[in-house]
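For the sake of transparency, this paper describes our internal protein records without simplification. Because each token names a local backbone shape, the row as a whole describes the fold. One such record is reproduced below, unchanged from the form in which we store it:
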Amino acid sequence: MNTINIAYFDSLPEVENKYKVELANGEKVVFTTKLLILGTDKQRALGDKGHIVLTNQRLFLANGYGAEWCVDLSDVVDFQAVEEPFLFVFKNRYFAVNFSKELECDYTRMTMTKTVHETKLSGFVFTMEKTDSIKFEEIVKNLSN
């Protein structure tokens, strides 16, 4: 069910592994940056001090508060750049990644009224600084088969 061109990641140049993720044989880091916001596919906030590391084989996400996720790119259905209207004149811009199957997780988060325990995720949404956002969007544009 994978609809992204995974081979495209092999053509990207290697960048510094500044978050020191453990790489498999033949794996290289192709994009990394600090995230402004990380959320679930249902747009529930997971953290605001995290980072993303994209390799030619896997996607690593961290929320900055101790929770980390790793997804094999063969389980990624798509990456999307999303732009929505916000307060009439502004635009809310973020990226979404969707999986072909639910990711098992164990993450507890607090809301204003209760504690919510997440056990499955089928994707993430995230934002980053504009400079990195432009670089990541270029990658996203080249992923379709």
Remarks:
- The chain has two helices and eight strands.
- Residues 7-141 form a domain with the PH-domain like fold (CATH 2.30.29.30).
- Residues 83 and 93 are 4 Å apart (CA to CA).
